[in-house]
Amino acid sequence: MRIYLLFGIIWFSTIAWAQSTEPVLCINPHVHSATIHRIAADSQGKYLLTASSDKTARLWDVTTGNCLKVFRPPIGAGKEGELFACALSPDGAIAAMAGIAGALWNNATDDSINIGDAQNRSKIARYSLYLFSSVSDEMLQSFDAVGAEALDLKFSPDGTKLVAALGNARGLLVFDVSNLSNYRKLIGFGAAVRRIAFSKRGEMAVIADDGMIGLYDANFELIRTKMLRGRLSDLAYSPDGNELAVAFADNTPLLLLDANTLDAKSNPVSADKSTLFSQITYSSDGALFAGGHYNSTGSYQIKSWKAGNETSDIKAATGVINNIIALADGSIVYTSANAEIGRVLPNLKTPETWAKGNHKGNWFIKAGTHIFTPETNSCLQTNANGSEVGFIQSGMGILFFSINERRLYEGESSYKTPTDRNTKHSIRISRWNNSPLPYLNSIAKSVFEKDEVGVCVDVAENGKVILMGTGKNIYALDRYGGMLWKRTVQGGVTAVKVSGNGRIAVATLGDGVLAWFSISDGEQLMTLFPDPRNRKWILWTPDGFYDCTAGADEFAGWHINRGTHTAADFYPLSRFRTQFYRPDIIHVAVTNILTAKELSTQVPDDAKRIAHILPPIAYITGISNNTDTTLQVNVKTLGAPPISLKIIVNGRPVRLLPNVKAGAHTVTFAAPASNCTISAIAANKHGAGVPATVVYKSGQTSKAASHVRILSVGVSEYFGELRLRYPAKDAVDFAAAMKQMWASKGEVSVETVVNEQVTKSAVVEALRRLAKESGRNDVSMIFMSGHFLNAGAGKYFFLPAECSVDNVQAAGVNFGEVADIISQIQGIVVLFLDASHSGYLSEIKSDAIFDVDGLVNMLASPETGATVFTSSTGRTFSIEKQEWGNGVFAKALIEGVRGNAFPLNSSELTATRLHNYIAARIKELTEDKMQPALVMPANVVDCGVGVR
Predict the structure, then answer these.
(1) Rounded alpha-carbon distances, angstroms, from residue 157 to 89, 171, 180, 218, 361
(2) What are the backbone angles phi and psi of residue 883, rounded to the nearest 5°?
(3) Residues 6 or more apart in contact with residue 73 via CB below 8 angstroms
(4) What is the C-alpha separation between 212 and 889, in angstroms, rounded?
């Protein structure tokens, strides 16, 4: 058996493929979307680093749980790019990561392995190890000759060495951090080295899958080894370095060893539940923490012991705990197989769910995607043409998505859902579940690739097509089991369904998305990423045309490899909004089953290739603070030359450098007076690039607003045939409520413009006054209610009193100009847009539409920097009742600022808290027929919108 296993782990491929630099569309949630394998921290416990199967590593702020950086190594098809290990240097400046990385393009090497007296030569895959700067997120170094995937990484306590634990019995590599080409091998292991631990004095302990534990001195010289019984999974040094705790992946109890002799010590840890613990750590005060498969009361728990006495069970996660480490302040952090991260303070209180603006130290971050559960296989459903689907995701009820209605909603099934679609038209599929060899009418069919097993199956209503899904591919077979087509998908397939007309295949995938395929040739038509917690979604075609709700065009984007020794670039779809935000194309993609080629004919040639319209990229390579703040910014151009560089603090502009060139720049500006985010955004003729953002910590709290400026605009009475009931009254009532709320805390200026006063010039001049008069510590609140119109090509208009749907270009307020003015306003800017009335425009002119989502995404972009509230999403009609006395959005908003939205025992009202109240109140008042939204730019903190 040992000989068979050794042969099985050798990579026999001799081909190395060139790394692809073609843009690849992928999801981009704000947190990890797949299993987090490792978590690491700097020596002071200020920052965390995580490595995930979603092919990214992320840097986190320990205090708040905010994600600070996303590190993107090169990636490839299948599992290429998945990260299994990471380490953060003691000073937090260097992030190291590795895993299944680089094997597709690194040249395999000749190597030998001894089995008894025989020596066997083979081609061994070479993997890559990457070092990134934690400041700029640029790649510093890479090492492309790692002989197996790395399972663990650790920096030595002095930060001069980096140690990699390797699979396939390849031992350990010890690197000089200053130059990765200087390294030494530590060998002698009969299986994969699983985990590394360092004492504070610099001794190193390692464990391997063959049961060996090894001790090394600070110079990496072997001291002794010992064989232990059981499947070793984790180890940790006690704070004084005199004890080693060892955890196991089987039913072996936790083991305590003398760290010098490896002799077993008396074990005060109770053994009755220790068989469930595979992860272990010591806190800085000597308490022992363990977790893994220990599940109690419906959640996975972490147990702690202090001085040998059991102290507490901590509710930790919904998935298996797969890593726990201790921080310098006595807290611990952990990850789960469900892509969750949590922090437990020394008080051992259960972590609280993280939200933007979090200020609690014991936080818990959920996965960036909802995982499709086993129930999805039987519950996935679709209507006749595939334009509506129903599905189940973890923690949610039955969800529906309608392409025609542009809506994600909860509900009961409205059409028949067959419970057994694998027996139809004399077709019987059996032995397919978790099997490598499915049977068709009692005949085995060898259709899967090696090591694949069946996960899901469906048969078309007419019996002509059989769909089968595995952890890697989706297969389409004819009624006799012949292969029609095969498609490899990210994360594997969890459920499949054929539409009623037999022309569309719908599949739920392992990375939390749904995909539509053409039954005729397997071409992928579009992909949906749903975020049901926030009622947000984005739907895109393979060419990058997309439709989305407000704030969701950051959820997907283009990953572009830049070579084996350079960090990849990533551009959210929001960067290409003008060219690729096309709800019209998305609508016809399923209803007409157009191919990607046919769809692309509807777009100008110069907008088809992402590589031709890339904006520049800014990197913040350094920051210093004295009287002023000085940023070192490097601008990289990938296409057209840059034309400007904007510096933004908490979403507001502080410096604009025109006529910049590619290369290094030094920018100085007045130091912020409070904790904030600082961003640099470079732009060229194609648009603005992705913000480079750092967190500035001054140690001071935010200053109270020195001046609150309120601009409230509403039009009920138009000169022509347009009429509305409440917008003018809503504007007056909003201004009064805001003035009353803010009056006790500072100076308040109010300008109310309603009905015939609302002209194009009046609105524009009022906005310009705000920009001219605003200061760094001001709050500007803008309310607009009336008719809005989408004129196509990304142009949005607010209709003043003298405007009609026929002269909107001349008389309407162009939101392109509005966005430009808003970007110049200093201080906090909050917009309240009540656009739901605009649905009535279709009664006047059948082709008059307003898509509020596109407007909100433009106004809440990082370069504009406004926090935007909107009354509804999509093209929802306003719902009004005379008894309310206001439109429903204004009613809920005014109730909130007059006290209902304030949390107990708090005098501050944040944007998130106000939105939560508005959303709940509108859901109650309209029976969930209107869905308001709040969108904040990624580089803006959750701002204060009220006081009492």
Answers:
(1) 9, 21, 18, 10, 26
(2) -65, -20
(3) 55, 57, 81, 83, 97, 101, 128, 130, 139, 567, 568
(4) 65
Give the single-character DSSP code of 61.
E
**Torsion-angle region of residue 216: left (phi > 0), alpha (psi -120 to 50) or beta?**
beta
Beta bridge partners of 201: none
pLDDT on residue 839:
54
**Residue owning tokens 């997309």:** 546
> In the 3-class helix/strand/coil scheme, how is 118-178 assigned residue by residue?
EEEEEEECCEEEEEEECCCCCEEEEEEEECCCEEEEEECCCCCEEEEEECCCCCEEEEECC
Half-sphere exposure of 770 (CA within 13 A, CB side): 34
Task: Quote the tokens at residue 457.
Answer: 């199956």
Neighbours of 554 (CB within 10 A): 24
**Rg of the chain on CA atoms, in Å:** 29
Dist CA 263 CA 948 (whole Å):
64
Start-to-end CA span in the chain (Å): 73
Tokens of 803: 């405007």
Positive/negative CA dihedral, 208, 214, 219, 221: negative
The 3-state DSSP class for residue 341 equals strand
DSSP collapsed to 3 states, 856-874:
HHHHCCCCCCCEEEECCCC
Spatial separation of the C-alpha atoms in residues 555 and 543, rounded to whole Å: 16
Closest by CA position to 65, among listed 39, 89, 47: 47
How far is the C-alpha of 179 from the C-alpha of 157, rounded, in Å? Answer: 18
For residues 194 and 209, the answer to whether their CB atoms sit within 8 Å is: yes
C-alpha span between 794 and 208 (Å, rounded)? 58
All residues at 6 or more sequence positions from 856 whose CB lies less than 8 Å from its CB, including other chains: 550, 551, 833, 868, 870, 933, 935
Q: Are 338 and 327 in contact (CB under 8 A)?
A: no
- Which residues in 89-135 belong to E strands, given as ranges? 94-100, 109-115, 118-124, 127-133
Token digits of residue 742: 């803010």
Q: Which two tokens stand for residue 690?
A: 């992705």
Cα 782 to Cα 829: distance, rounded to the nearest angstrom: 8
User: Which two tokens mark 180?
Assistant: 């990765």
Cα gap 726→736, rounded to integer Å: 15
Q: DSSP of 656-711, one letter per residue?
A: EEES--SEEEEEEEEPPSSSEEEEEEEEETTEE-PPEEEEE--S-PPPPPSEEEEE
CA distances from 384 to 390, 461, 541 (A): 13, 10, 20
- 489 token code pair: 């998908």
Q: Element (H or E) spanning 583, and its range?
A: helix 583-591
Sheet holding 795-798, edge to edge: 788-792, 795-798, 813-814
Look at residue 5 in the predicted model and tell me its pLDDT.
27
Dist CA 892 CA 911 (whole Å): 14
Residue 858: other Cβ atoms inside 10 A: 24
Phi, psi (degrees; rounded to nearest 5) at 376: -60, -35
Candidates 307, 212, 217, 228; CA nearest to 260 is 217
φ, ψ of residue 714 to 5 degrees: the values are -150, 140
**Residues in contact with 261: Cβ distance below 8 Å, sequence separation at least 6, in sequence order:** 224
Q: Give the Cα separation of 780 and 711 in Å (integer).
A: 8
Q: What is the predicted pLDDT for the residue at 419?
A: 39
Return the pLDDT at 849. 59
* 485 exposure class (CB count in 10 Å sphere: 0-12, 13-18, 19+): middle
pLDDT < 70 regions, the chain = 1-17, 109-123, 268, 270-275, 308, 370-378, 393-396, 412-425, 589-608, 674, 698-705, 793, 836-850, 874-879
What proportions of the chain, in percent to the nearest 5, are helix, strand and coil? 15, 40, 45
What DSSP designation does 766 have? H
For every residue of 484-533, DSSP letters joined together read: EEEEE-TT-EEEEEE-TTSSEEEEEETTS-EEEEETTT--EEEEEEEETT
Contact between 898 and 741 (Cβ < 8 Å):
yes
